[in-house]
C-alpha cells in the first residue's frame, strides 16, 4: 500500500518534530519534507512532490501562512492544503477558504481528527474542524463562492502587499520577502491606494481588517 506523502510547513521546531514523529508512526502516512517558513516550503514542493501540504498560519519569519497558501495555490492549484492553526475565528476560516485551502484543523484538536482530515483531503474532499458549526462552515463556503463571482479590484500580488503592509512590514521587507524591487512595491502600493480610493496607511489597515486580510497572531 502506497503511503500518503506529507510536507510540513511549521515554524516551531518542537511542534514540527512532534507532528513528523506522529505521522511517520501511522501505517499509511509518511513525512517527505519539512520547512520552517513559506518560501522554503514552496521550493520543497518542487523537490518532494507531496500528496498534501500541512501549513501553519503563524510564521513570523519570511512569508506568513496566508501568503504561502496563496502562492501554493497559484503554482500548484490541485495540491491539497490543510491548515493547522491556533486561529479559531470564522473570519480566518472564511479567508483560508477564499485563498483555496481545502481544510482547517485546530492545533488543540484531537489528533485523530487530523488523521481523518488528511484522508478526506487526499480523496479530493474538504474537511473543517468540528469546532466550527456546520452552519458557519456552509456560510463561509457560500460567502467565498459569492466573492469569487464578484469583480475584485486587486490583483493577487496587490493583495499580498496589502496584507503585509497592514501587518507592519516596510517596503524593503516586503521587497525581500516577495523577491521584487522596492520600486515595484511602491508602484503596487500606489495602485492599491488608487483602486481602493484610500489616502493613507490608517485607511489601508482599516480596509484590510474589514475585508479579512489582517489577522491578529494568537499568543504562543
The figure for the number of domains is: 2
**What does the average pLDDT come to?**
85
Could you give a short account of the major beta sheet? 6 strands, parallel
Low-confidence stretches: 216-220
Basic shape = globular
| Spatial separation of the terminal alpha carbons | 38 Å
Report the C-alpha radius of gyration, rounded.
17 Å
Classification by helices and strands: alpha/beta
Indicate the CATH topology of the largest domain: Rossmann fold
Q: Which oligomeric form is depicted?
A: single chain
- The CATH superfamily of the largest domain is identified as Response regulator
Number of strands: 6
Quick one: CATH class of the largest domain?
Answer: Alpha Beta
CATH architecture of the largest domain: 3-Layer(aba) Sandwich
Taken in chain order, the helices and strands follow as EHEHEHEHEHEHHHHH
Description of the molecule:
It is built from ten helices and six strands; from the N terminus they run βαβαβαβαβαβααααα. The protein folds into two domains: 4-148, Rossmann fold; 156-210, Winged helix-like DNA-binding domain superfamily/Winged helix DNA-binding domain (Arc Repressor Mutant, subunit A), CATH 1.10.10.10. Helix 8 crosses helix 9 (182-196). The longest helix is centred in the middle third of the chain and has 15 residues, at 134-148. Strands 2-1-3-4-5-6 form a six-stranded parallel sheet, with helices on both faces. With 220 residues, the protein is of the alpha/beta class. Residues 216-220 have low confidence and may be disordered.
Amino acid at each position: 500500500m502506497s503511503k500518503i506523502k506529507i510536507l510540513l510547513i511549521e515554524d516551531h521546531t518542537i511542534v514540527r518534530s512532534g507532528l513528523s514523529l506522529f505521522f511517520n508512526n501511522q501505517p499509511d502516512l509518511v513525512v517527505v519534507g519539512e520547512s520552517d517558513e513559506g518560501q522554503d516550503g514552496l521550493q520543497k514542493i518542487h523537490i518532494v512532490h507531496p500528496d498534501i501540504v500541512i501549513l501553519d498560519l503563524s510564521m513570523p519569519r519570511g512569508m506568513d501562512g496566508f501568503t504561502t497558501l496563496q502562492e501554493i495555490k497559484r503554482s500548484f492549484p490541485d495540491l491539497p492544503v490543510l491548515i493547522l492553526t491556533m486561529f479559531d475565528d470564522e473570519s480566518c476560516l472564511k479567508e483560508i477558504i477564499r485563498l483555496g485551502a481545502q481544510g482547517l484543523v485546530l492545533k488543540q484538536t484531537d489528533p485523530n481528527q487530523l488523521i481523518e482530515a488528511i484522508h478526506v483531503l487526499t480523496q479530493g474532499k474538504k474537511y473543517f474542524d468540528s469546532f466550527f458549526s456546520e452552519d458557519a462552515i456552509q456560510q463561509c463556503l457560500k460567502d467565498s463562492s459569492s466573492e469569487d463571482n464578484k469583480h475584485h479590484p486587486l490583483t493577487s500580488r496587490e493583495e499580498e502587499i496589502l496584507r503585509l503592509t497592514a501587518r507592519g512590514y516596510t517596503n524593503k521587507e516586503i521587497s525581500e520577502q516577495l523577491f521584487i524591487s522596492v520600486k515595484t512595491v511602491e508602484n503596487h502600493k500606489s495602485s492599491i491606494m488608487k483602486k481602493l480610493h484610500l489616502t493613507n496607511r490608517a485607511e489601508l489597515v482599516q480596509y484590510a481588517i474589514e475585508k479579512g486580510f489582517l489577522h491578529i497572531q494568537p499568543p504562543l
